[in-house]
Amino acid sequence: MNVMSMPAEGGTNSLEQYWMPFTANRDFKASPRLITKSEGMYLWNHQGGKLIDGSSGLFNVAAGHGRKEIADAVYAQMMQNDYTAPFQMNHPSAFDLASKLTHILPDPFNHVFFTNSGSESIDTALKIAMAYHRANGQGHRIRFVSRERAYHGVNMGGVSLSGMVKNRETFPSVMPNIVTIRHTWDPEAVYTKGQAEHGAELADDLQRHCETYGGGTIAAVFVEPVAGSTGTLVPPKGYLQRLREICDKHGILLVFDEVITGFGRLGHPFAADAFDVTPDIITMAKALTNGAIPMGAVAVRDEIYETVTEAAPDDAIEFFHGYTYSGHPAACAAGLATLKIYEDEGLFERAAGLSDYFLDAIWSLKDLGIVKDLRGMGFMAGVELDPIEGKPGIRGNNMQKALFHNGCHVKWTGDTAIVAPSLIAEKSHIDEIVGCIRKTLEEV
């Protein structure tokens, strides 16, 4: 399709002005894939075609598209109060949303800091860790630990923590004092459904860093409980527990990046509940507002909040950090409406109940010769394909486009599809998604 001849809503005939994120811009603009409508489990493209959404947008539309309850709540809030400066002033719904969040967070998480994205949540968590140790008289803790194949957003803090090469090699000037431990994917454990039996010893990499640099120099360890954007790497049994033990031994903060795993994706409010491991800091975003309004948040243990706030003089700002749009009224309204949907419709429990059916459907693809590995837990799974020799990632890029034209949206990272339907999905929707994936793979 000639881009210049394709009129868009609003009167312009060109797609050239928009520099798209994480997109092959020249390729896309030569053959656009535009969505003009979304509702429930489905999307409609600019040519009138209907697609089922197999990845909940970008894992954020957990309650399905087009939720009128959220739109109505945002409209009502905007008509009453469209914006309040969040520094030294605020509005009631920010406190209401923070309170509602603490009711579904594990104990003792009773304090929430609002951001506008998962990337901002990671940078905020880095600053909270620094502020906590400084207030605690341990400002010498300047190191942070992340993992290979990690993804923690695109701000400089997250890029510094990243273990995915394409998110780092273009931006070499990152934070110093970052060290990584190994990822948890094991070629000997391919096609493992849920957690592998072996591999907890990989967490001992953290102990080795403590012995190399001194545990007292490490501020925090950042991990995705299930590494999402790298293709759904489920931790082996005992791995997260072992990380918790080492952190406790050396006074290191454990940060769970739950931007993807939060809000029911693993059949529980948070992955911390699913794995029965309590971190010190939890970052979140995405499904917090069902994708309707940009928003993120960072929840901390009571001790962290109290240490930072009580270290400052009376009437002084305790934490020199924040955003113009922290806790924006419209975002808070969307968050409150979203949490009510999750509770009223029992969506976390629904995901838990459908997990076995979903994972069995994904594992039905095992017979296809092109499938290199299948991984999954809860309501998210990775379908990894053999790469084209010498061209890693090209097959996945081609597959994403082919799936679109076959009637299904699925997010790909490299040569791995990340399948994560909305929590409102029925068994028939799961069958439709997996059927479309099979059809498309058979056409390769």
From TrEMBL:
Domain of life, per lineage: Bacteria
This protein's UniProt keywords: Aminotransferase, Pyridoxal phosphate, Transferase
Cofactor: pyridoxal 5'-phosphate
InterPro entries assigned: Aminotrans_3 (IPR005814), Aminotrans_3_PPA_site (IPR049704), PyrdxlP-dep_Trfase (IPR015424), PyrdxlP-dep_Trfase_major (IPR015421), PyrdxlP-dep_Trfase_small (IPR015422)
GO molecular function annotations of the record: pyridoxal phosphate binding; transaminase activity
Record's keyword annotation contains Transferase: yes
UniProt record similarity statement: Belongs to the class-III pyridoxal-phosphate-dependent aminotransferase family.
Name used for this protein in its record: Aspartate aminotransferase family protein
